[in-house]
From TrEMBL:
Coiled coil: none
Protein name: MFS transporter
Transmembrane stretches, start-end: 20-40, 61-79, 85-105
Keyword Repeat annotated: no
Record carries keyword Ligase: no
Keywords: Membrane, Transmembrane, Transmembrane helix
Length: 127
């Protein structure tokens, strides 16, 4: 996730011509990184969430992730019309890098699984 800010920066710096190849490579790297991130975050969620709540937690996360996409698309369109496309790409790059920094500095990065935090957690029913 921390590398997710790289493709927008490349997009903001790209010029017509050969720059399209750099943007294509950056987007391919972003696609690979998103795949790895999704696998890790779903696996982590399944490891820490009690079975009886997993459906609710998954539904809530999908609602937040997919439900905000239209809002972001609308905001990006308005921003692109207002300040221009290249400036909008730079705004997106800054937001993405900011989110990555928050994740890297977050205590979630070192949280571990319940079994790692409390050795007896695996022995308790419902955990």
């Amino acid at each position: 996730m921390a590398a997710a800010g790289f493709p927008p920066i490349v997009g903001g710096l790209a010029q017509p011509g050969a720059g399209a190849w750099f943007v294509g490579g950056a987007l391919a790297a972003l696609g690979h990184g998103m795949t790895v991130y999704n696998i890790v975050q779903v696996s982590y969620r399944q490891a820490i969430c009690p079975d009886r709540l997993l459906g609710r937690v998954t539904a809530g996360i999908r609602f937040l992730a997919w439900g905000t996409a239209p809002v972001g698309a609308l905001g990006g369109g308005v921003l692109g019309e207002t300040i221009g496309l290249r400036a909008t790409v730079w705004v997106f790059a800054g937001i993405t890098l900011g989110a990555a920094v928050l994740l890297v500095l977050s205590p979630l990065r070192t949280a571990g699984t319940p079994a790692e935090r409390a050795p007896d957690a695996a022995a308790r029913p419902g955990s």
